[in-house]
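Today's session is about reading a structure prediction critically. Students often jump straight to the picture, but the first step is always the sequence itself: look for stretches that repeat, for charged clusters, for runs of hydrophobic residues. Only then move on to the predicted structure, which in these notes is written as discrete structure tokens rather than atom positions. Here is the chain we will use throughout the hour.
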Amino acid sequence: MARRRRLSWFLLVAFVVVPIAELYVLIQVGQVIGAWWTIVLLVADSILGSWLVRREGGRAWQALRTALETGRMPATELADAALLLVGGVLMLSPGFVTDLAGILLILPLTRPLFRRVLAGVVARRLTVLGPLGQTGGARGGPGQTDRPGPVVRGEVVEE
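Below is the predicted structure for this chain, in token form.
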């Protein structure tokens, strides 16, 4: 139930509040600098965003390849790739509010903050309630049962 409520709020913000904020900011900027300069600024902003995504995406791709070649789990690199993807999509949508959010996700100075936020969200989503309370990971692995109590590891010997 709480999950649906959060999804409803997210959809309300994404499809109602953000477009209204975008229109408000576009109108305010247009009144200050003029309609044509606002359009030029939006196009320049998109060009800057695409250049940043291309540059940082290439770096993230190289870091991902290096992590895989060395046999290291590429958690940071995958998080960076996800943030770059979302930032790039935000930069493609017209408007200053989404462009600002996209640039914050793309820039290497601010991306670690959002990487930590993303890691926290993912960690909360992967935590499940087991029979003894909160446990990390999925249930049903080796040695896990639905009954609480100690697990005695051993070997089955057939006679």
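Discussion point for the tutorial: The longest helix spans residues 35-69.
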